Amino acid sequence: MTWTDPTVCREFVRAIGDTSLLNSDGSFTEALRLRARRALLAIACGQGERGRDTVKKLVEDAPGLDRQKEAAAAVSPHVAATASRPEYAVGPAVSRAFADYMDYRENRDTGRKWGSLDEYLRQGDMLDQRSEIAESVMRLLDAPNGAALLAETARLYAEAARTEQDGLFGSARTSAEIWRDAAKAVDAKSAERRFSLAVRTARDYSWSALTSKPDMKLAKIEGDREYGDDVARRLADARESVLKAGGRKENNHYLIDIEGEPVEVGKRGILHGWHNRNNDFIYPILGEVMKNAVRVNELDVREELTGKGEKDDQVLAKFVYLGAAVDG
Question: 270 falls in which pLDDT band (50, 70, 90)?
């Protein structure tokens, strides 16, 4: 769920009864998307003393927080679902996590203090201790694919909390216990996926195996493109080419299948080497080149690092693909 989701926008208009947020043809106005965005962010991280400030920073597009904004939108319906049972409502803990994480990132990114999240969490506050749930949410916010993991953890939590009650052989679980069980279930599912992927993708990359593959289809270069320093247009053309080639957009991520496996076409990958004007021909045909690419090797994921130089435990696999294009 995001603020660009048509279902979210339609429900928002229905809930507030303000049809002026729609264009004459029924399409969504920019004002509607902005208000829906703020509403989702307020649900996920707008509670507590710092909630309003947190939402404001996210709405104003604080740099480097795209994953966290995505996480806020994804987790908001599950946070809202827990509000009917105050003893299990996670809104305060999730809001505290977002506020603290924003504080951590602001200090880390400006070089003032805290080189890692662990350092920040260790410093603590004896007068205002952070809950176990809040700390768990912060760790997920810091993970490369934390939005999906956080949303799934919150979903499992909300489902369990809705029906949790004392039983014949014991008392109902606390909110922390339910969250812990949900997080373990998500971890187990993630581990199972990693194992499944490792088995499914094991391949022979010998010379004889690679040369026995069918001839690669070559994309056709569409002519000269002059982008200058226009990074936004490079991104737009590349993403459009991915969709034209049969790719898809899921939760604000662009994906395309290569040899049966989904590959994310990320911003950093698209713009790698953009300053070299000789690369400008690739953006309008990137999707076609990737669709026809051939996997030629795989790398040890244990060496994958985050942008901060830390080990990235969320990377499932790392492959090398070869694609090509010719003048039309």
Answer: confident
